[in-house]
Amino acid sequence: MGFALSNMRLTSTAFDNDTPIPARYTGEAEDVSPVLSWSDAPEGTQSFAVICHDPDAPLISGRGTYGFVHWTLYNISGSVAGLPEGCSDYTTGKNDFGNTDYGGPMPPEGHGEHKYYFWVLALDKEVNLDSGLTMWELLERIEPHVIGMNRLIGTYRRS
Prior knowledge:
Strand content: 25-35%
Helix content: under 10%
Distance between the termini: 40 Å
Strand order of the largest sheet: 2-9-8-4-5-7
Largest sheet: 6 strands, mixed
Order of helices and strands: EEEEEEEEHE
Number of strands: 9
């Protein structure tokens, strides 16, 4: 399939698509991951991965990657349909803060509003990957197995 939107739906009780993310889920407050729920996963889904990425961050690496990765979570069973607030289950990858936790939105001061893309990716196999992968390493490894994906976009402007 590659990386194309599918009929999956990703929602949150914390915020609606293209609306502000409440401060609770940002680096300026409690910094906990929001509740996420997904539905309409493709037939044959065996596992999921979840990512939060800020493409508006003014960062380009020497490897040509861009933006800022806030969360990488994978090895999620295909029977799971969402994540609770403050989720600490499953396998975590390395974010751009340099750790393996969820790191909420916190754009540079004076940088204006950023869009944060929460992605859910459905895979046709259980990948059982080691912890600590960057988002880019994860995407490279799972790309042949992605059979569905969609996103929930939240916005945040630093106070």
